[in-house]
Amino acid sequence: xxxxxxxxxxxxxxxxxxxxxxxxxxxxxxxxxxxxxxxxxxxxxxxxxxxxxxxxxxxxxxxxxxxxxxxxxxxxxxxxxxxxxxxxxxxxxxxxxxxxxxxxxxxxxxxxxxxxxxxxxxxxxxxxxxxxxxxxxxxxxxxxxxxxxxxxxxxxxxxxxxxxxxxxxxxxxxxxxxxxxxxxxxxxxxxxxxxxxxxxxxxxxxxxxxxxxxxxxxx
Length: 219
What we know:
Layout: H1 19-40, H2 42-58, H3 61-67, H4 75-78, H5 86-99, E1 102-106, E2 115-119, H6 126-129, E3 136-138, E4 141-143, H7 145-151, E5 158-165, E6 175-183, H8 197-201, H9 206-218
Antiparallel strand pairs: 1-2, 3-4, 5-6
Helix pairs in contact: 2-5, 2-9, 3-5
């Protein structure tokens, strides 16, 4: 049996460009690729980030408790939200944060500067504090419960009254305020202007964003 032998000629390659020139060409190619993706996927990037923010806000313990219209120890009961409204209110809050989101696509240059800029939730919280859903009308006045949740921390807010769970009673049908003691936002939910359920919703979310952009770059 005759076995053919393949002669392989030794190949040599000489690069004539400098390392910097090669790197520049690589960067330009990467920038063009990223710009093509960001341009073609701009609408999807906006909607995907908005959806993520909605998930982040709705998953906060405060929003979960607020939406629990059958739990007499929930924030829905303690704030006295009218029966049947708390789930819609929680969703409305999440929507308001989502709608404040602005995604800007900046062209990537040959030094790989640029990309996606995400702006969301004004630090003054006017989009939330101005919501009619954040108020409850009570005898003799107005209760701005959402401001309490966002800003009041552990301060005592109601003196000489405390909350008592009582299924079927009160505006929420979950409980009532009774004389004696005092009331404040439960410490596990208390927020300040610098640290509340909205600001906490955005903490440690880099992995979520990395996963999102990983999917976009592979598309």
